[in-house]
Amino acid sequence: MKAKIEFTLNGKDVSVELEESKKLLWVLRTHFNLTGTKYGCGEGYCGACTVLINNSATRSCATTIGEVAGKNVITIEGLAQGEKLHPVQQAFADHDALQCGYCTPGMIMNAVGLLNDQPKPSREDIILGMEDNLCRCGAHNRILDAIEAAANEMQNGK
Amino acid sequence: MDKSKDIQDYIEGHTPTNTIKRRNFIRLLGGGIYVFFHAGAALKLMAAEADQRRLPDDFNAFLRIHENGKVSCYTGKIEMGQGANTGLAMMLADELDVAYENVEMVMGDTDLCPWDMGTFGSLTTRMFGPSMLAAAAEARTVLLELAAEKLGTDVDNLDVKKGVVFNRQDQSEKITYAQLTNGQRIERVAKNESTVKDYSKYKIMGKPKFRADSLEKVTGKAKYSGDMRLPGMLYARLLRPPSHGAKLISVDTAEAEKVEGVQIVRDGDLVAALHKDPEMAEKARDLFRAKFEEADKPVSNDNLFDYLNERAPEGNVNINEGDLSKGEELATSVFNNEFHDGYVAHSPMEPHTAMAYFDGDKMTVWAGTQTPFPAQSNIARILGMEEDKVRVKPPYLGGGFGGKSDHGQAVEAAKLAKLTGKPIMVDWSREEEFFYDTFRPAAIVKINSGIDDAGKINFWDYHVYYAGDRGSETLYDVPHQKRTVYGRGWTAPGIHPFDTGAWRGPGNSTNTFARETQVDIMAAKAGIDPVEFRLKNLKDQRAIDVLEAVAEMADWKPGQSPSGRGFGVAIGSDAGTYVAHIAKVDVNKETGEVKVLKVWVAQEMGFCVNPQGATIQMEGCINMGLGYSLKEFIEFEGGKVKTKNFDTYEIPRFSWIPEMETKILQRNAPPQGGGEPAIVCMGAVIGNAIYDQTGARLLEMAMTPAKVIQALKNV
Ligand code: FES
Ligand code: FES
């Protein structure tokens, strides 16, 4: 059964007519052509598909489009303010915290969600918060450094 | 057939459809200075070994100085996250004296680049780099000659800075590369060998440089194969067998056909549901009713090593020096051990993915692959097309590690595109990725060795089965030694129940685990500190240098193992590079969990072009090495792969990652490989550290908690 679903996507009001059971991951990637959100496992194990829903990091492969009705969805494409990168994006680039880059959008979105919840995380908090995002290239320690730096930057910016 | 202009526009740079031969395509590229070159004789050997059926003997890459002074290098190699493009651009900028920003690497597109067998074996910097430098030197000579003529002076009086040639005596007499190249069309062929003797003269190389593609990757703009979009494209979901070797008996697609908007395609064993919505394609595919006849393969995790031992192929003796029996007579202690290594997956975060489009004449395939040219050949052969009618364009690659040398998904996409005339996306699921992965082969090493009273290794009888000989060198100075290699390594037709293949530093992790564990066992028995024992038995200065460097970095406290402190050491050599590792671990004796607290690595790789990139590769190696050492193994039963996703296949996570300290020993010698060496020691260094803390010796990877507990019982 198709339904009309309205939500906010990267700051814009959008509306789709789709079966409510469709996965947000695929709706983003095909319907909206927002391909920055990646498929890695399809079953919630890897975090490559992470987006923000009402500011909270969420796995879009385990979320249906019906569930986001009335909510605010942000993907990696909606994070920068025009040319200005989000501090977490900037920190990833500054720390060379990526190799192949396939896990990167999910890592960044998860980190932003983490910092929304815990603006002043300890290293341990960051490890715990990032634990279920997988990276096969092994950029982990640089990712942790980047998130720490971004947290500081965001604190000082305020 | 849909030949919409739209789609042609998407295939940017679509070449005219007349037959384009290798040398001819360059004609299409316009003016400038071209230097063709061939990367290395060793590369040629590798290719012959890889059984590639065509190999250009004239060149496999070229440089172009554009009419605007910019520089491009066209190569069939690809960038898979290791930063090869950054390192190569640095080399080129340095040799030609142009700004790094004005150098572009054009990689992997089979229409734009000359043939290349693929990107693996840490060959890019090691083999390709020096040849490219030689070509750049040739280009520089041409430019200086042109400048001398224009400025009316001698070449000897000229110098270059940032793409401007000037007269050393009178710096106002100058001319830019752009002015020199404008309106020119000069072609040269570079001599094969690099003439570079002194790497220390370079200004850009040797200094850390961050990767060039970060901005695209942190904004989600970087396009991987699955991100390609063409009008009218369909997602394919394919019928898959329940196990390797299963034969399709029958398939009923009637129910699937009822799914609205679906197109079912069948061509022999290829049965696919196509739909513009990937979830609908999947729904339809799940409605296929198929009967398979499964093959009987009498092997599983339970009897794997017996099975492999029973089927051992004929051995080839690689090295036979001195006289083993004499060595054994002189030995005062003899050690006989068998080491095991299970199947390990590549599991890049991006599964194999390809998009293909056939316009009625030419096939274009966007594929995440380490081997665009072999993919082109295979697709052409399988579809009965001319190779020049198949273009493979590699977008960004989401990790390879050897696994994307295989390109089955590109062949599937191309077949379906040809059958339907529509753009087809084949994006494997994680389960398909595990099923079709060419695993690192399970392997066995048997070593019989001995030492004398002074702690000198006096004989070494080494047998490696199924892993191949990479990294099997003895490294130590042993008077009586023999090395026998059973099977080719990587693959062993008819033995493994599924496909196996090259996995980051193929064979070397297995061989180094066995050698360095055996050496540690001997050191412990001799009652000699493991670093001292190694130094005592080493003559190879490069090995000594890295070992001494890492011992100093870790502030190694000599002692007899097991010391209870949890420190291990191991050395290795791969792709022309030497590495030495020290690790500190903490073993939980109740649970058998091993936490690696810190890893120190010293690496000597000749002249290191980009220390930043090389350091990141070392970190990545430490990281990935934790997985195969401690947790990763494929569960299977005959041809059935029971491992399907990351719930059971545990790859390294944030909480596992140790503190790392890395050091690169710069050496004024040709650059060597950097993407793989630092992974090869990880098994042994962790195993040796476990022993040092607990006295428990593990001879089989992965050293899972269950196996650690078992080993602790034997202490
Ligand atoms: S794709 Fe969603 S968690 Fe892996
Ligand atoms: S950078 Fe490749 S998976 Fe993380």
Mean pLDDT of chain A: 96
**Mean pLDDT over the full residue set of chain B:** 89
Q: Gap between N and C termini of chain B, in Å? A: 72 Å
What is Rg of chain B?
27 Å
Model regions low in confidence, pLDDT < 50 over at least 5 residues of chain A: none
The class by helix and strand makeup of chain B works out as: alpha+beta
Count of beta strands of chain B: 29
Q: Which CATH top level class of the largest domain in chain A fits? A: Alpha Beta
Q: Structural class given helices, strands, pairing of chain A?
A: alpha+beta
Tell me the number of structural domains of chain A.
2
Which assembly state applies to the chains in this document? heterodimer
CATH topology title of the largest domain in chain A: Ubiquitin-like (UB roll)
Q: Quick one: biggest sheet of chain B?
A: 7 strands, mixed
Number of helices of chain A: 5
As laid out across the biggest beta sheet of chain A, the strand order is: 2-1-5-3-4
Q: What is the H/E string of chain A?
A: EEHEEEHHHH
* Percent range for β-strand residues of chain B: 15-25%
Tertiary shape of chain B: flat
Query: Do you know the CATH architecture of the largest domain in chain A?
Result: Roll
The N- to C-terminal Cα distance of chain A equals: 46 Å
